[in-house]
Amino acid sequence: MISVMKLVGTGNDFLFIDGRVKLEMPRPEIVRRLCDRHFGIGADGLVFVESRNGKLEWDFYNTDGSHAEMCGNATRCFGRWAALKLGLNAIDFATIAGPVHVDVAGEEVSSYLEFVSANPVLKRFEILGREVGIYWIDTGVPHFVAKVASIPEAQKDLEMIRALRFHPEGGPRGANVTFLEIVGPTSFKTVTYERGVEDFTLSCGTGVVAAAAVGLQISAQKAGLTPGREADVEAPGGKLRVRFEEKGVTLIGPAVRVFETEIDEKTLR
């Protein structure tokens, strides 16, 4: 039997499985079956929790079974999982992108990602016969961030979104596409078309950080000031707070358990 816990962070949902349990099926196949929203449990990603030399780490997969270097909301859900399963309100664990520290205080979970820096770069190139000015930033995974007047309107241009998603400037695996709507100098709205999910999600932690970095830079340039260090960002699934530290960034917001169940691995075949 496989013990599976489902957690959600501002609408970004994940499944957690103890990776120390031996499974016969390849992990990518388990991910694809369990994350399917029609024939499985349904989730934006799945985390196998590992322990090596007494230290926690994760093996993180997108819903399509591909590996992802980082997922900001999943780090916060990891903290909630550790609080519920291990009784820990503060943890450090390893990811492909770098080390993460998580603190849990009630339903609010804070993830400190020391490897992330606010360094958006404005790029200009032609795509689908149009000249595009768009920001590129790596917040653990690469993002193209586009400032738009209306997020709902921008979401309708799927041809442009998919062209950006796989544009060579985004890197060998392409990039996430994040829309940014500026509400105030430190207040923003955002939504991300995520690679591996290949659709918009209710929230994307690395996308929220990317939007905050670009939004603060644009607002500061407009006012002739140095970019601020904190921002409130609203995704379709809820609100998050982003704080840029002297080194790294902290992502703050709710993460809650949806349910926990057991599944017979044989039923997945």
Distance between the termini: 13 Å
Low-pLDDT regions: none
Number of helices: 5
Give the biggest beta sheet: 17 strands, mixed
At CATH level 2, the architecture of the largest domain is: Roll
Order of helices and strands: EEHEEHEEEEEEHHEEEHEEEE
User: What is the fourth-level CATH superfamily of the largest domain?
Assistant: Diaminopimelate Epimerase, Chain A, domain 1
Q: How much is the radius of gyration in Å?
A: 18 Å
What is the SS-derived class?
Answer: alpha+beta
Mean pLDDT: 94
The total number of structural domains is 2
Question: SSE layout and pairings?
Answer:
Blueprint: E1 2-9, E2 12-18, H1 27-35, E3 45-52, E4 55-62, H2 72-86, E5 90-94, E6 99-105, E7 108-113, E8 121-127, E9 130-138, E10 142-147, H3 151-154, H4 158-165, E11 176-184, E12 187-194, E13 199-201, H5 205-223, E14 230-235, E15 238-244, E16 249-254, E17 256-263
Parallel strand pairs: 2-3, 4-5, 10-11, 12-14
Antiparallel strand pairs: 1-2, 1-17, 3-4, 5-6, 6-7, 7-16, 8-9, 9-10, 11-12, 12-13, 14-15, 15-16
Task: Outline the structure in words.
Helices cover 20% and strands 44% of the residues. It has 5 helices and 17 strands. The protein has a 17-stranded mixed β-sheet that branches. The model has no long low-confidence stretch (mean pLDDT 94).
